[in-house]
Structure formats: structure tokens, C-alpha cells
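Table S7 (text form). Paired inputs.
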Amino acid sequence: MQSNTCVLCGQKSNIGSGEPKLCKVCGYVKEPVKELWSLLNSELATLASVDCETQETARFIADLMALGVDHPRVKHLARLCSTLINLVWERESEGSIYEIEKEVGTTFDITSRLELMANLGLISIEGDIVKIPTNSVIKKIALPMRERINEQYRLRTSLFLLGYITIGTLVRFYDTNDATPVRQLLGSNDSVDRLPRAFISALTFVLLQWYDGWDQFYGSDLRRHLRKSRIQGAVRSDIFGVLAGRDPRRAVTFIKAIWKGFDQIFIFDDYVKRIRERIRERERGGE
């Protein structure tokens, strides 16, 4: 990747002269990412269990992750999340790294990703054994699965856990200016070229529109934004398909799409507006 491109999305960087380089959008969303992370953890701390379809902030996080679930690396990470959630019920909250790798279907970067999860307090690693601590968010989202055994809800929980890890890793990146955790999670240790640029570019665009107080945005604006990251063709069509709800298996609930002339308008659901207002209240209160 050229040195003048954003380390996250691949757009031309125009913020500062240091490293790592960020584009204007990825630099701006530092605040919404950190505020969303802070709100989420403050809410989860008060809950014994978390339903990823009814707890609004968890629901939003899961919805956002649907934007990237088709990328091979994101898909492997979502499968790892699902495997860890299953440990709660199937393996008494622990399993070997070998068993986890076998279940996920790859050994690629599993260990480094598990280490990231351990740093977030989601798991503990003792030798080659992975354990889910009693106070882990993983146990909180696994509890409702006693009654919610359908496959769609299992997908929602894995998407939420994927989002929890992704947002937490981005917060760490913004706090330290060290891109290594992002590469470990979504790319590879030796290259930023392999990051899922379409996912990150779409994610940051949506967060920008939402946090700035807009209730809707135009498809033409999203298309223009993705083009700056060289995202076109089938990949861009997939992103629009997720937002428009074309595939029920990946349907998101935070937005709806309508046509106005030759352009699409994407309208934020009321529940994400409520989340935004809770963040504003925390900002006004100095939390």
C-alpha cells in the first residue's frame, strides 16, 4: 500500500504527516467509535445477560458488522466468535486452541486473534486452553440462547461479538496510534493491503453520518465515498444489498432503503437515533 493512503480504508490520506496515516473520515470517526464503545460497556456492566436483538446498542453493533461478513477474513473471525460462544454451553466454557482451530476450519491468525480477545477481557488463555471467565461479555450474550435456539439469533450473537472485538480494537488503535492490533484482527501482521477495505470504508461512512446527526443519507454519497477506496462492482453492490435488506440472512435493522428518482435514500431507524441521543446526554453530562 502506498505511504500516502489511509491505513484503515485505503483512501488518500490527508491528515498530518505522521504514521499511521488516516483519511479524513477514518480520522473523524475516532470520536463516535470511542463514544459508542464507552456507552456499550457502561450499559453491559449493569446487565447479567444481553439479548443482541433487544438491547439497542448491542443490536446496532451486530447490524454494523453485517456490512463485512462476506469478506473471508471477517467471515473467519465471525466463525471464531460463534465457536467461543458455543464453548459456554457445549464445553463448560473452555476448550483447547487446537479444538477451536478445528471448529473454525483454519489455523490462520487464530492465536493472535485470541490474544486480542484476552486483552479485551473476553477470554483467558492458560497454555493451550482457552477459558471464558464468569464476568465475560461472551457469557452474557450466551445466556439468552437457552430460549433463543434459532440459527438467526446465533448469527446475531456472533455478529455482536465480532463487533465488540472490532470496536474495541479500533479504540485501542486510536488511543495508541499503533495499527498492529487492527492488522492482527482484520488483516495480517506483515501487510495492511489485506484489510477488508470495503467493510471498513462502509463502516466508517455509516458511523460518520449517524454521529453527525443525520437521519438519512443518499446512496450516491455512499457510492462516491466507496469509490475513493477503489471499491466498485460486485463488492460495492454487496454493501448496498446488505443496507437494502436484499438477503434476509444478513438483514440489518438499523436502516431502511427507499428509492427517490434514480437514487436510494437510506433512513436510520429510531432505535439508533435513541442511541445517538444517549451519547449526547453523556457528553453533556461530562461522562
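Next pair, protein 2 of 2.
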Amino acid sequence: MHLLPQWYAKNIPDHLAEHEGVAEAMDELHLRKIDLADEIFVVNFKDYIGKSTRKEIHYTKKIGKKIRWFTHDEIGEKVSKIYHINFERIKENRNQE
């Protein structure tokens, strides 16, 4: 997960690692974190699981670790809406500068 300040977003709400050219390194880092973890927790907003997450799920199953899931719920929808509203505001502010 990228824990970056809101101003960092460069009009790219998803796939930030690909944009920054570090997707492969991030994928490898996530697999090493899975090695260290007791289980993984998959957050599945809007029934979407991307390529990297599918790879991580497969790897977790392969090494026999537990997988827990968080799927669609009312709170998740609200969080997603807040994120996208804030992202649009950031884009608008950048366009005004």
C-alpha cells in the first residue's frame, strides 16, 4: 500500500507503481512480506482483483498460508467515494495552478 500525502498523486489514482516504474520491485516486496506474514488480508472493493493481487493470492495458496477477505460493504463504498472526491479536488487544484 502506498502511504503518500494526497498532493503526491499525479492524476493516476490506480497502478501508481507501474507509473513510477517500480511495479516489479513492489511485486517482489509484497511476496517477501507474504513470506513473513502469518496470513494475508485481501481487500476487494467493487469486485475487482488486479493482476498483482491475483499473483499474491496464488503465491499465498502455494505456500499454504491463510487468506482472509474483505469484500463490498457500505463503509467500503463510502471510503471509495471519499477517496475519488478528494482525488478530483487535487486534480482541479493542480489545473488551477
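The chain has four helices and two strands.
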